[in-house]
């Protein structure tokens, strides 16, 4: 809550302008925004007029359909079709909003907390409609099961104004976060183990051997560049693992990328420990 989900949607839709940077939008976007429709409902209008003003028919996915039959798809009995909006319960209003939403010719749907106040029947209907929708869907929801059933990508707030994009639903995002946490903990543990080992190695070195050999001097000079190269590779691998395209286009590569990242992190820790040992001896000599 308060991370800026609705603000992000409004930036995407062009309803607000960014304080910094730019937003690039497609030129052929036709957007249907669920939250806007809620505010536009006229309580005096009959349901048929809400769905198809001035016409008995509505066009859905290129197919002409009678408005009463269309309302029947949204669980409204024929006798309710000409009732005014004000006669509907909260759940029925939400169902009517969904009917109106999907009756609009749009290639982008925006749903901000659409499952609030939906009964089980309507929730199942919404999931079915979204599964068959061919356009792009932006969905904000706290309903984790609904997200897992509907979405193919997650955009998650990660703090400090940063947002990450992940392939899969909510459970997949949780799995990635758990793996990242475990990897960070392993790296911290490796660093903690390396520090005493480096200190012990420095202490164990006899005073007469503190002076670096020619090869050790060359090794010490090369270590900063090697560490920088390893850290650059580490950043590249982390970026790959955070890119949804990897999981969509080359899922078979994920284990190898993860294994290489773990190996690189181990090499970085070892190089840092070695650098500390050589630097300590060089200073003492």
UniProtKB/TrEMBL annotation:
PROSITE patterns: ABC_TRANSPORTER_1 (PS00211)
InterPro entries (UniProt xref): ABC_tran_C, ABC_transporter-like_ATP-bd, ABC_transporter-like_CS, ABCF_ATPase, P-loop_NTPase, Val-tRNA_synth_C_sf
Keyword Nucleotide-binding part of the UniProt annotation: yes
Record domain ABC transporter Uup C-terminal: where: 211-279
GO molecular-function terms, A-Z: ATP binding; ATP hydrolysis activity; DNA binding
Keywords: ATP-binding, Nucleotide-binding
Domain ABC transporter: 1-116
Name of the protein: ATP-binding cassette domain-containing protein
